[in-house]
UniProtKB/TrEMBL annotation:
InterPro entries xref list: SMAD_FHA_dom_sf, Tdp1
Keywords per UniProt: DNA damage, DNA repair, Exonuclease, Hydrolase, Nuclease, Nucleus
Record family assignment: Belongs to the tyrosyl-DNA phosphodiesterase family.
UniProt feature, compositional bias: Basic and acidic residues: 130-141
Region spans: Disordered: 118-148
Main subcellular location: nucleus
The protein's name: Tyrosyl-DNA phosphodiesterase 1
Phylogenetic classification of the source organism: Eukaryota, Viridiplantae, Streptophyta, Embryophyta, Tracheophyta
Taxonomic source organism: Datura stramonium (Jimsonweed)
UniProt key word Aminoacyl-tRNA synthetase: no
Cellular localisation: Nucleus
DNA repair recorded as keyword: yes
């Protein structure tokens, strides 16, 4: 459900066919916040595809009334004061407390109940109050639901204590509390996204969408898989003022029609070609053009409410200035990788007015106008196709292998372990796992000896993690791996627990994707990416290793122990470059990448310590015998924190 505010003023109560509250309903009550709320398959946990993911929008007010507009192509029936009113697509109606909404086809019935106390609905008293469960009329039912939730949340607390070997989390909480990054060093690390409902300490340095899309943006290119247009515009109103916006997406035809109806008139929608079956446009990135430069953002969240509010996610960004006139032909690894990737998307060229240049054609070559020489990361992209010859090492895991082979690492990382952490598991086999590990294990030590193969572990939530999560079993919708992929015998040796006490995210299920090599709390390298663990995302070698077949578009950023480059503190929104005093301390030093739990001495003359907020603990704990890896097509009868079973 998409909300623009956390002040809850109403609730949708599921009803039976005879319009009575259904205590046995598998559908939970749906809280409504003041402002627009998107209601559909995202918040109604059913598999019925006739129900749109964004079926209708209810704009609730602190006066107790609410406006409803039908977003999908299927109609809605409103029952109000004994009358029935059928609403077609884009039609509106004003709801009163007690009115019944019927979503059709599918016959899903809900009663709208205002939870604003009566004295607050009068014009003389508009002060907002937090939602109170006791304000719902059926207190007996709410008490039993609340009691069930308290019991299950107590179980969740016990589970977290077990994850911490019986230790309280206050001390581990200090890790994320102490993560403070000066603005000029932000490109050297990444940040976690803010999670609603966590204590303030857990959201230290965390970001929301409005933190990154800000200032005088002239052109915005938003790349993603899923896009909820109504949520996006309400969560980031700045977007409405940007004169040129291109949305590159991976949505299907049904959702695309809804996007077309909801988008501002000047926005362009584009879905890149998918030449190989079962591929997706999955890359999650933003390019924001300013009068002073460009902001490049790579992240892991779909442009939907639950991804930016309920899950563990990550985001990296860096600003780059325009090139000087005498350097227009100069390029480098980051620029070449970015422009090569953008050129494969083949979006419809459009024109934008840029103050320094006048009217400009916005295509992939336009992005050669910026100076990326200070780039703090390398790009690792995937594009669909059969790649051979010079292209063999340009994309997917072969691109990662190539860059790692060019790097030197400390001896401590010889034969050190690997971590694969992601939110969807493809259909894999042992041959491909060996192929993938070969790429992940590339690189040499300072004395030119190969690092050697690392033993991988897969950090993946188990069933108890999902059951006791902030969303309960509903979180499993975003961990969409079937049992036929998850329960392969050869995978058992890889499973490791999702434990994130030090970042406060044990119960915020991961949608973030990370791959890394480590020794203790030191990191050889770290990759933040849209890529899950699948052949579709990373590619599979064919024809005696002379061809790499990739199905999907993906994009990630690779952090390496390279030297810090001059100018990485440039900002498009904070008056250009920081003062020399702020940056001279670390320019030219070699980076030492560490986790938040690292306890070393800090910077010295030759190295600059950069902490990366890896959300889970290292080393991860292997699964216990009783742990069952989550798969979303199994039936789970033990109730979650909302008193629900799976599937609902």
């Amino acid at each position: 459900m998409s909300t623009s505010s956390q002040v809850q003023v109403g609730i949708l109560v599921p009803l039976s066919d005879n319009l009575e509250e259904d205590e046995k309903s598998a559908i939970p009550k749906i809280p409504l916040s003041e402002g627009p709320n998107c209601v559909g398959r995202d918040c109604i946990p059913v598999t019925d595809k006739r129900l749109s993911r964004k079926h209708l929008t209810i704009t609730a007010t602190c006066t107790g009334s609410a406006d409803v507009v039908v977003e999908g192509t299927n109609p809605v029936v409103i029952r109000s004061k004994g009358e029935r009113k059928k609403l077609l697509s884009r039609e509106r109606w004003k709801l009163g407390s007690g009115d019944v909404i019927e979503l059709i086809p599918g016959h899903y019935l809900f009663k709208y109940v205002s939870t604003v106390p009566k004295d607050e609905t009068s014009p003389s008293n508009h002060q907002k109050r937090p939602f109170s469960e006791e304000s719902i009329t059926d207190k007996g039912q709410m008490h039993s639901k609340k009691k069930a939730r308290e019991i299950c949340q107590e179980e969740a607390s016990k589970m977290i204590m077990l994850h911490n070997n019986g230790q309280e989390t206050n001390s581990s909480a200090e890790a994320i509390c102490q993560f403070r990054v000066p603005k000029h060093k932000l490109p050297l690390t990444f940040r976690l996204m803010r999670v609603r409902g966590l204590p303030a300490w857990a959201n230290s340095e965390a970001v929301s969408i409005s933190d990154v899309i800000q200032g005088n943006v002239l052109v915005a290119i938003l790349s993603n898989y899923m896009v909820d247009m109504d949520w996006l515009l309400s969560a980031c109103p700045t977007l409405k003022r940007i004169p040129n916006v291109l949305v590159i997406h991976g949505e299907g035809d049904g959702s695309l029609e809804c996007m077309k109806r909801s988008k501002p008139a000047n926005w362009i929608l584009h879905k890149p070609s998918l030449p190989i079956a079962y591929g997706t446009h999955h890359s999650k990135a933003m390019l924001l053009v300013y009068p002073t430069g460009v902001r490049v953002i790579i992240h892991t969240a779909n442009l939907i409410n639950v991804d930016w509010n309920n899950k563990s996610q990550g985001l990296w960004m860096q600003d780059f200035p325009w090139k000087e006139q005498n350097n227009l032909g100069k390029d480098g690894g980051f620029e070449n990788d970015l422009v090569d990737y953008l050129s494969t998307l083949k979006w419809p060229e459009f024109t934008a007015n840029i103050p320094a240049f006048g009217s400009c054609k916005i295509n992939s070559l336009f992005f050669k106008k910026f100076d990326y020489s200070s780039a703090a990361v390398r790009l690792i992209a995937s594009v669909p196709g059969y790649h051979s010859g010079p292209s063999l090492r340009k994309w997917g895991h072969m691109k990662l292998r190539t860059i790692l082979q060019e790097c030197t690492f400390s001896k401590e990382f010889q034969k050190s372990p690997l971590i694969y952490q992601f939110s969807s598991l493809g259909s894999l086999d042992e041959k491909w796992m060996t192929e993938f590990a070969s790429s992940m294990s590339a690189g040499v030590t300072d004395d030119k000896k190969p690092l050697g193969n690392g033993e991988p572990m897969i950090v993946w939530p188990n069933v108890e993690d999902v059951r006791c999560s902030l969303e309960g079993y509903a979180a499993g919708n975003a961990i969409p791996s079937p049992s036929k992929n998850v329960e392969k015998e050869f995978l058992k040796k890889y499973w490791a627990r999702w434990k994130a006490s030090h970042t406060g995210r044990c119960r915020a299920m991961p949608h973030i994707k990370t791959f890394l090599r480590y020794n203790g709390q030191s990191l050889a390298w770290f990759l933040l990416t849209s890529s899950n663990l699948s052949k579709a995302a990373w590619g599979s070698l064919q024809k005696n290793n002379s061809q790499l077949m990739i199905r999907s578009y993906e994009l990630g950023v690779l952090f390496l122990p390279s030297s810090v480059k001059r100018g990485c503190g440039f900002s498009c929104t904070d008056n250009g470059y920081p003062s020399g005093d702020e940056t001279s301390m670390h320019e030219g030093k070699k980076l030492k990448l560490v986790t938040l739990a690292w306890q070393g001495k800090g910077n010295d003359d030759s190295s600059e310590v950069i902490k990366l907020p890896v959300p889970y603990e290292l080393p991860p704990k292997p699964y216990f015998p009783e742990d069952i890896p989550w798969s979303w097509d199994r039936r789970y009868t033990k109730k979650d924190v909302y008193g629900q079973v799976w599937p609902r």
